[in-house]
TrEMBL record:
NCBIfam families per UniProt: branching_enzym, PRK05402.1, PRK12313.1
SMART domains, alphabetized: Aamy
Location of the active site: D315, E369
Annotated organism of origin: Chryseobacterium gallinarum
Biological pathway: Glycan biosynthesis; glycogen biosynthesis
Function: Catalyzes the formation of the alpha-1,6-glucosidic linkages in glycogen by scission of a 1,4-alpha-linked oligosaccharide from growing alpha-1,4-glucan chains and the subsequent attachment of the oligosaccharide to the alpha-1,6 position.
Glycosyl hydrolase family 13 catalytic domain segment(s): 169-515
Protein name in the entry: 1,4-alpha-glucan branching enzyme GlgB
Name of the encoding gene: glgB
EC number: 2.4.1.18
InterPro entries: A-amylase/branching_C (IPR006048), Branching_enzy (IPR037439), GH (IPR017853), GH13_cat_dom (IPR006047), GlgB (IPR006407), GlgB_N_E_set_prok (IPR044143), Glyco_hydro_13_N (IPR004193), Glyco_hydro_b (IPR013780)
């Protein structure tokens, strides 16, 4: 006798939108929901398995027997199976037993489950996202914090390896434990946002979360959904935004997951040239299937809605947009126009961006991790763009790191690697990343990418950070890089926080703190960060001296900062052209002893009214070795020159 009763949460309109690819709140329909039928409490289950012969609910409540609780297929041909089981409650373990057309029985976890077990069985849990939020103040004003006209400095982190319990280093900290340690640190360092590498459920730790099986489940490695909500809530109450890594690009072939969900290629593209990823041995979503688009866009909405995320950084966009990504000739099929663009994926991304910005407006941001020169990624969809808010500036990252690896004598031959970004930096809204991908797999930590002896390595990295934080665009820095983690990132253990006992590491951390403060408080560094009016080269071609000089400009005429990078290990008196009537203060010197530098003072030695390379005036400044210096234009000529220090 079947113990399932008829019940539905779907209206005809829900089904219509789902089949059209335009239902963006499926998490309120699919999955396991605690409901009441005829005065009896229980759980409603619903799952999409259009090619199944039979679908039943199995769990700890029926000894995993697939014959007792058989769901009902809807009459409308939608492929949805549903039903009500009385007496079940939160915490119940369950899976779907799906009988395929060939008679196989596949035991699948619920694609819409809110929690999963952490074991081989990977059963779903009947759970809830109910939580009493206390971040109303943040939610009302966050549009200001997420604006393109606001400073946006992101601390990228992996929750499992940021910090661990010293007494039990093999154990993960709970989301709530992390909150107690993370929030004071982010506030001290003055980052505006944190970005969490995927917090969705995943089976394989070495994937770092990028091989997701439970797209709607907060990984139970670190606690419950409410524990993650507590972490985000606490961050918001402390004026810290939260960006989540989101992976709509692929999924693993895990037996419990989406692969061959009902015995067919339901979520993945059937053609392996479009449906299998050769690098990651994973499966690519079928972006041309409307129900899959509804699943994915609903998933994006879910994290923005239920978890109050302020943004989604979309992983592996390049692999989505290019049919020939990581494929040799003959291993991919051109689109209908003979090109290599995956038109279905492009349409999906346009619809995703349109949907989330329509729902949340400028309160949220979407960010593309995209390494090619695919055009108009951050332009509005109605203007022919893909609609992202920002894009990672991968070219800047690679050029910059390549330059800083060069021997000092060779830098003049690579001088324009640091100026090349100015040729395209306003083509898109760029975020400048120094991400986790650059400090793994034998690539070395950032500090050991730098050339020279120990002093030179730290001086190089300090100067790189000055360049990064004063360059147009938002910022992203991976955890550990702020204090010069010496080993490559290892996801199995905590960062080497003990390094802060050494002055050079503590000094580097202090510099990053000061740069974040300057970026947040000097409007010239952020107001026009995506506008051409915000940047001007003063000296871009002095390759013999390895000197770069540029200015950043705010909205007001006299709101100007000048940046000087001396990328050679010697002290130099250097002449710079400026405009008539301008006078300058030194506000930061990366060679300051407080930051681990040699302590050479960047003194302005002389000011002259003389024509110099198109300018009517010059200043001569003593430049410290391997250092970045930031000057601020001052309003009053009589104001005494001094170094402005941020007091805490």
């Amino acid at each position: 006798m079947n113990s399932v009763k008829t019940y539905t949460l779907f209206t005809d309109h829900d089904v219509y939108l789902f089949k059209e690819g335009r239902h963006y709140k499926l998490y309120g329909k699919f999955g396991a929901h605690s409901v009441e039928k005829d005065g009896i409490q229980g759980v409603y289950f619903s799952v999409w398995a259009p090619h199944a012969k039979k679908v039943s609910v199995i769990g700890n409540f029926n000894n995993w027997n697939h014959k007792d609780h058989i769901l009902f297929p809807r009459w409308d041909g939608s492929g949805i199976w549903e039903g009500f089981i009385e007496g079940l409650t939160w915490g119940t373990l369950y899976k779907y037993a799906i009988e395929t057309a060939r008679g196989e029985i596949l035991e699948k976890s619920d694609p819409y489950a809110l929690s999963w077990e952490q074991n081989i069985q990977a059963a779903s849990l009947v759970s809830t996202t109910w939580y009493e939020w206390n971040d109303a103040g943040w939610m009302e004003k966050r549009w200001k914090k997420n604006s393109l006209k606001a400073p946006l400095s992101v601390y990228e982190m992996h929750l499992g390896s940021w910090i661990r319990d010293k007494d039990a280093p093999e154990r993960f900290l709970n989301y709530r434990d992390i909150a107690q340690k993370l929030i004071p640190y982010i506030k001290e360092m003055e980052f505006t946002h944190v970005e969490f590498m995927p917090v969705m459920e995943y089976p394989y730790d070495p994937s770092w979360g990028y091989q997701i099986t439970g797209f709607y489940a907060a990984t139970s490695r670190f606690g419950s959904p409410q524990d993650l909500m507590f972490l985000i809530d606490e961050l918001h109450q402390n004026d810290i935004g939260v960006i989540l890594d989101w992976v709509p690009s692929h999924f693993p072939g895990d037996a419990n997951g989406l692969h061959r969900f009902d015995g067919t290629h339901l979520y993945e593209h059937e053609d392996p040239r479009k449906g299998f990823h050769p690098d990651w041995k994973s499966y690519i979503f079928n972006y041309g299937r409307n129900e899959v688009k509804s699943f994915l866009i609903s998933n994006a909405m879910f994290w923005l809605d239920r978890y109050h995320a302020d943004g989604l950084r979309v992983d592996a966009v390049t692999s989505m947009l290019h049919l020939d990504y990581s494929r040799n000739e003959g291993e991919w099929e051109p689109n209908i126009y003979g090109g290599n663009v995956n038109l279905e994926a492009k349409t999906f991304l346009e619809e995703f961006n349109t949907a989330v910005y329509k729902e949340f407006g400028d309160h949220i941001i979407t960010i593309a991790e995209e390494s090619s020169d695919f055009p108009m990624l951050t332009k509005p969809v109605h203007d022919g763009g893909v609609g992202f808010g920002m894009k990672w500036m991968m070219g800047w990252m690679h050029d910059t790191l390549d330059y800083f690896k060069e021997d000092f004598n060779n830098r003049k031959f690579h001088h324009h690697k640091l100026t090349f970004a100015s040729m395209y930096m306003y083509n898109e809204n760029y975020m400048m990343p120094l991400s986790h991908d650059e400090v793994v797999h034998g690539k070395a930590s950032l500090i050991y990418k730098m050339i020279g002896d120990e002093w030179q390595k730290f001086a190089n990295l300090r100067t790189l950070y000055v360049y990064m934080f004063t360059h147009p665009g938002a910022k992203l820095l991976f955890m550990g890089d702020e204090f010069g983690q010496t080993s490559e990132w290892n996801f199995t253990r905590s960062l080497d926080w003990h390094l802060l006992e050494y002055p050079v590491h503590k000094g580097l951390q202090t510099l990053v703190k000061e740069l974040n403060h300057l970026y947040r408080t000097e409007s010239a560094l952020y107001e026009n960060q995506f506008e051409k009016a915000g940047f001007e080269w003063v000296e871009a071609d002095d390759l013999e001296n390895s000197i770069y000089v540029y200015v950043r400009k705010g909205k007001k005429r006299d709101d100007v900062c000048m940046v000087i990078l001396n990328l050679a290990p010697r002290v130099l008196d250097y002449k710079i052209g400026t405009h008539t009537g301008t006078h300058w203060d030194v506000v930061l010197n990366s060679d300051d002893m407080e930051y681990g530098g040699s302590g050479v003072n960047p003194e302005i030695l002389e000011e002259k009214y003389e024509e110099w390379r198109g300018y009517q005036k010059t200043i001569t400044i003593k430049l410290p070795p391997l250092a970045g210096v930031i000057l601020k234009q001052k309003k009053d000529k009589k104001y005494k020159l001094h170094r402005i220090k941020h007091k805490r």
